[in-house]
Automatic annotation (TrEMBL):
Superkingdom of this protein's organism: Bacteria
UniProt GO cellular component terms: DNA polymerase III complex
Domain DNA polymerase III delta subunit-like C-terminal span(s) in chain numbering: 203-318
Catalytic activity of the protein: DNA(n) + a 2'-deoxyribonucleoside 5'-triphosphate = DNA(n+1) + diphosphate
Keyword vocabulary terms for this entry: DNA replication, DNA-directed DNA polymerase, Nucleotidyltransferase, Transferase
Enzyme class: transferase
GO biological process: DNA-templated DNA replication
UniProt-recorded name of the protein: DNA polymerase III subunit delta
GO MF annotation list: DNA binding; DNA-directed DNA polymerase activity
């Protein structure tokens, strides 16, 4: 089976995904894997970290197969490869193997630049995956997400979504997909407000604020009121997930850091940093994991996977409130 060698094709012999935005890096990998499996459903995928790619490993993985098996070899954090392994990779670039696609994920900085230069010289297909630090870049990302999903969203809706969610591209992409799936017709700012903003009418965030501080009874009361007045159930699960994720992010941040510095690093407004600091008392790493699992189960239920979505949400609220008192 001949391989497409066009550098614009995901099936090019070599793809380099350059940057530090995890969502875009994962998408670059997924595009190659999906293209390979479309060409051959039995494609073997090997996803490796630098410590797993020791000298000689690449030669073993790319040795010719008796059955001409198609294979995708993904190397993450290629800038961290050892000097000996970099030599192996450069040698491979001089003589790539038929039916094998190599994908190198590289942060793009000065570290490991020699490998990046060698890959470019070898004619690699390159995918840019930069961190989106500017609000305008995130706004453009949201607009493109809706276009990719085949949906129309007003400029005000796109801006409202960025304002409500912040800089986390995974959450922005998830929100775009959720709105595209749940909302018929044009997506406007009013729709975004119902689902994602923290205004009084978006009571999912009130439910989340009560649950993450361990106030189960109050959170359940607010949840039942939100359901009674017709608040979108996916918006409530989103608010719960956002509240728990914010606690997990801040818990892993350096202690003693200033709110402004953390806001830039974590993609949250400074006022939210201060609020989450108050909310995270009583939380543990195990509690965050348990709460996220419970919210994921509820999200699946409200999207058609359960017979009683309201009950699933109540279970999630109780689980989150209980997790807030695990320390």
């Amino acid at each position: 089976m001949a391989r497409n060698s066009t550098t614009d094709s995901p099936l090019a012999p070599l793809t380099i995904a350059v940057g530090q935005e995890d969502l875009l890096l994962d998408r670059a990998v997924r595009e190659v894997v999906e293209a390979a499996r479309a060409a051959d459903a039995d494609t073997d995928v090997r996803d490796l970290t630098p410590d797993a790619l020791q000298p000689g490993t690449l030669a073993e993985l790319t040795s010719p197969s008796l059955f001409a098996e198609r294979k995708v070899v993904v190397v993450r954090n290629a800038q961290d490869l050892s000097a000996d392994t970099v030599k192996d990779v450069k040698a491979y670039l001089d003589a790539p193997v038929e039916e094998i696609t190599l994908v190198l994920l590289h942060a793009g900085g000065a570290k490991g630049k020699g490998l990046l230069d060698a890959a470019r010289k070898a004619g690699a297909r390159e995918v840019a995956c930069p961190k989106m630090t500017k609000p305008a870049d995130r706004l453009a990302f949201v607009r493109q997400e809706f276009r990719t999903l085949g949906r129309s969203a007003t400029p005000e809706a796109c801006q409202a979504l960025v304002d409500a969610i912040g800089s986390d591209l995974r959450e922005l992409a998830s929100a775009c997909a959720q709105l595209a799936a749940d909302v018929e017709g044009a997506i406007d700012a009013a729709v975004v407000a119902r689902y994602y903003t923290g205004r009084a009418e978006a009571t999912g965030f009130e439910v989340a604020d009560l649950a993450v501080t361990g106030r189960a009874a109050e959170a359940l009361e607010r949840l039942r009121w939100a359901i009674a007045v017709g608040q979108p159930l996916p918006g409530i699960t989103f608010a719960l997930a956002s509240g728990v994720r914010a606690i997990g992010k801040l818990a892993s941040a350096p202690r003693g850091a200033r709110s402004g510095d953390l806001a830039r690093e974590l993609g949250m407004p400074p006022w939210k940093i201060d609020r989450v600091r108050q909310q995270m008392r009583g939380w543990s790493a195990d509690g965050v994991s348990a709460a996220l699992r419970a919210v994921a189960d509820a999200d699946a239920a409200v999207k058609g996977g359960g017979a009683d979505p309201a009950y699933a949400l109540e279970k999630a609220v109780v689980a989150v409130a209980r997790a807030a008192r695990t320390r």
